[in-house]
Specification:
By secondary structure, the protein is of the alpha+beta class. It has a single domain, classed as NADH Oxidase (3-Layer(aba) Sandwich). Helices cover 39% and strands 16% of the residues. The protein has seven helices and six strands. A hairpin with a 3-residue loop joins strand 2 and strand 3. It starts with a helix and ends in a 6-residue tail after the last helix. Bound molecules: flavin mononucleotide.
Length: 183
């Protein structure tokens, strides 16, 4: 599948069949995150692979916020999650001092890693969905994440319950999002 086909065919999966994902495949997915670019090459990420029952339950619980709201009502069928939390970036002192880039770039860097992981997963025949909202405290408690290591995104990874036909993307038009030389 060439890149354009991947762009057109990738979609978020919200129905998994529950089949476990081989750890070797999960590690290949994380490798795509590990090799991603980051501002100042700071690599401000830590990937927590979750595939055992107790930890899975912990993540499922952490995906519920504000008395029951969740971005992933289908979370119980997800066989693996990749929880991406912030690792304190080891930037050059001059950068830290003058531009305070670390904080501004961390979510951007982690977003890039997350996207690369989604495409790698797709290449491996896996489906994914990024999940943005979580209860930080619950995530910290259940996965032993030290305080301050913000969870920026959680990837649900698995096999789709059924193959969905590639659909036309609901996207803004090129004219809506792009212009030459002026806003
Ligand atoms: C940062 C981020 C957070 C997201 N959080 C959720 C979520 O909590 N629940 C969900 O079902 N989808 C979530 N999504 C998936 C988006 O809804 C999805 O990417 C968008 O609707 C476009 O659809 P597509 O991925 O199928 O092309 C998230 C996507 C991103 C990039």
């Amino acid at each position: 599948m060439d890149f354009n086909e991947m762009l057109l065919n990738r979609e978020s999966c919200r129905a998994f069949n529950g089949q476990p994902v081989d750890r070797e495949l999960l590690l290949q997915v994380v490798e795509a995150g590990r090799l991603s670019p980051s501002a100042c090459n700071a690599q401000p990420w830590r990937f927590i692979l979750v595939d055992e029952a107790e930890a899975l339950k912990g993540v499922q619980d952490a995906l519920v916020v504000d008395g029951g709201a969740t971005g992933a009502p289908w979370r119980d069928k997800v066989p693996a999650f990749i929880v991406v939390c912030e690792e304190f970036a080891n930037t050059m002192p001059i950068v830290r001092q003058h531009y305070n880039t670390t904080q501004r770039f961390v979510p951007l860097d982690i977003g890039l890693a997350a996207m690369n992981m989604c495409y790698k997963a797709m290449e491996l025949g896996l489906s994914t969905c990024m999940i943005g909202v979580c209860d930080q405290d619950v995530m910290e408690q259940r996965l032993g994440i030290p305080e301050g290591h913000t969870v920026w995104v959680t990837l649900a990874v698995g096999y789709p319950a059924k193959e969905t036909a590639p659909r036309k993307k609901m996207r803004k038009t090129i004219e809506d999002v792009c212009s030459f030389n002026h806003y």
